[in-house]
Amino acid sequence: MPEELPEISKSTSFSLNIVRIFAMIGVVNLHTILVFVQRPDMFHSQLWLPLETFLTFSMPAVSLFFILSGYLTINKKRDIRENLQKTCWRIFFPLFIFILLNATVDWFGLYQGRQPLLYTVYQSFLKVMVSDLWFMVVLGGFYLFQPLWYLLAEKKAVFQYSILTLGIGSIVLHFFNNLAGSNISHASLTMVSSYLALFLFGGYVRQKEVKISLRSLLLLSIAFVLLKVLTDYCSIQVSYFANETASYLRTLNALLGTIVSATWHLFMGVILWELLMRIPWLKAVQNFKNSAKIVERIGKIAQLSLGVYLIHPLLISLRSWVFGFEYDFSGLNVYQYIFVSWTSIFLLSLGLSLLISKIPGLKRIIGISGK
Q: What topology does the record note for this protein and the membrane (predicted)?
């Protein structure tokens, strides 16, 4: 039997809620703002650099969700039946409902009713791993093996070496796939091994604290962000040079970009996790008069993170395909459009999640216990 872990303290619980909210906002940032960074006409604008830097902090959002899930589940003892029941209600039931909802939106917007609805549903199930719901499929797969992870966590040395092996293996696979110019999907062995390493890392840090100072974490996060922004900038810039001038620079930047890309999800995810968990958030909030209410409200918002993750792609599809609200046709400048787009998607997702959470018969579709 593994040694009993202490209960999660109020301070740690509050920090976990901050991680949830940070990751939730990060995912919405990527799906509403990233498109502007990738537009060729945005590269020469004054907005590209601040947006690229801002989004670089948002990119490890899904990595944080995997670490958080491992932190909360791996060290819990469950039998196979209990684990299957919890996984079905927590992961697969919401996944099934939102595949159906996404299919309905596609049928109305993308296909405009020109093909049978059932066939659109069938297509949605087939393409789930290239949709915004891929995270739920991978996480559900990890949850199904929770009793195995629990047994693995008992053997601390084996557990640690397993995480290192998965992490190093995924970096090596990612590096050579990038060199070969392969398109790495979320369902690939490369990415799944990376996500599993992060998931298991979450279980590991629940048992044992990683010894690294807050100052070192801050410096590492800044260094990684600057390196990512630099490689992205150079990869676009060298494309404007003549071949004979830029061949050496292209090769050098491609190699550096490959190294950054191969290590990004793992290293930046771990660094951001440790950084967010080390900052004394609860102590800072307790300096305010209404600190108890602030803590309670942040906890309630954090509880809606899965709902926001599931709902916001639906709203983006509705905005684009049903209402036709796109930047090129909106009549807004880029600052106005980003503000309106992000604010509307995030607040509507949060509001709908809150509404659903209040309805006992519906709240399971956003992963909230029906009890």
A: Multi-pass membrane protein
To the question of pTM greater than 0.85 for the whole model, the response is: yes
Contact 326, 320 (CB under 8 A): yes
Residue 89, CA distances (Å) to 96, 195, 209 in order: 10, 22, 31
Q: Are 18 and 281 in contact (CB under 8 A)?
A: yes
CA distance 353 to 359: 10
Q: Is the alpha carbon torsion for 36, 41, 46, 50 positive or negative?
A: positive
Closest CA to 22 of 52, 63, 83, 73: 63
The DSSP 8-state label assigned to residue 76 in this structure reads S
Mind listing the pLDDT tens digit for each residue in 267-309? 889 999 999 999 999 999 998 889 999 999 999 999 999 999 9
Low-confidence winner among 22-26, 223-227, 241-245 (lowest mean pLDDT): 241-245
**190: enclosing H helix or E strand:** helix 189-207
Spatial distance between the Cα atoms of 365 and 89, rounded to a whole number of angstroms: 8
What is the C-alpha to C-alpha distance for residues 294 and 85, in angstroms, rounded to an integer? 34
Residue 1: per-residue pLDDT = 43
DSSP-assigned letters across all residues of 194-240? HHHHHHHHHHHHHHS-----HHHHHHHHHHHHHHHHHHHHHHHHGGG
Q: Please give the pLDDT value at position 237.
A: 67
CA-derived radius of gyration, the chain: 22
Sketch the domain layout of the chain as residue ranges: 10-212+291-366
Per-residue model confidence as pLDDT tens digits over 174-204: 888 777 766 666 667 778 899 999 999 999 9
Q: 106 with 120: CB under 8 angstroms?
A: yes
Name which of 96, 104, 173 is nearest 137 in CA terms: 96
Residue for token pair 């300096």? 287
For residue 226, pLDDT over 90 is answered with no
The token pair that represents 256 in the structure block: 């550096």
Q: Residue for token digits 């090596």?
A: 172
Q: Tokens 């983006």 identify what position?
A: 316
DSSP conformational letter for 74: T
